[in-house]
Amino acid sequence: MQHWIELFIKEIKGTGLLQWIATIFGVAEVLLAKRNNILLYPAGIIGIVLSLYLLVDVQLYAEAALNMYYLVMSIYGWVYWMKKRDEPPVQISYANRNEWYITLGISLGGWAVFYVLLKYFTPSDVPILDSFVSSTAWAGMWLLARRKIENWVLLNISNFVAVPLLFYKSLPLFACLTIFLFVVAIFGYYDWKKKLEGKLTVAH
Fold it and tell me: For residue range 61-84, what is the model confidence (pLDDT) as tens digits?
């Protein structure tokens, strides 16, 4: 145990400034998401751009592609969340059947596509895990952009697998951030559920 603690401390000390900055903005993004605050998107965009460079540098190509997707979905989500003229803001809701079909399609289809690309067209040594983490996170981000409560479930499936993968790739701060995201996502789910149930109670 002492050996692992010393190894962790050594990796933290050797962590570059860029990873620290990206982690700080990542923390800000998830805390703002938990509070259902639209400022999660500008904070996330900054962290995404920085993370993209770091992930390519350690050959986590699917997660790098995931960050490109995050960038697009963050811009989309930012616009989607804003009030439109003569329309109320988008409210938290449960995913319907069609949205679940899309979610499963993104998760399973994305996993297969990413795996093939990583296995045969990149030097990745973790194609199965890298592709799974990315595809489930893609699905979760799509649900988040549409303010669906199930986004927390998909994101935490991705987070659970991402933690050991990030430690393996010597990205300890990103791994710690992911553990933090995992915990916050649990509280985020129950916070959103309370808001949603309150809205449904008022509606009835």
Answer: 888 887 887 788 788 878 877 765
Please say if the pLDDT value at position 16 is more than 50: yes
Letter string b/e over residues 88-122, b meaning 16 or more CB atoms within 10 A of that residue's CB: eeeebbebeeebeebbeebbeebbeebbebbeeee
Q: How far apart are CA 154 and CA 150, in angstroms?
A: 7
d(CA 24, CA 15): 13
Q: What are 66's two structure tokens? A: 């995931």
What is the distance between the alpha carbons of residues 132 and 4, in angstroms, rounded to a whole number?
26
Residue-wise pLDDT tens digits, 113-138: 999 999 998 888 899 999 999 899 98
User: How many domains would you assign to the chain?
Assistant: 1
Q: What is the DSSP letter of 92?
A: P
Chain CA centroid to CA 154, Å: 9
Q: For residues 47 and 25, is the Cβ–Cβ distance under 8 A?
A: yes
Tokens for 54? 């770091």
Tell how many helices (H) and how many strands (E) occur in the chain: 9, 0
Q: How far apart are CA 105 and CA 136, in angstroms?
A: 10
117, 150, 32, 86 alpha-carbon torsion, rounded to 10°: 110
CA 16 to each of CA 50, 58, 100, 121: distance values in angstroms, whole numbers, following the listed order: 12, 13, 39, 29
Boundaries of domain holding 60: 2-203
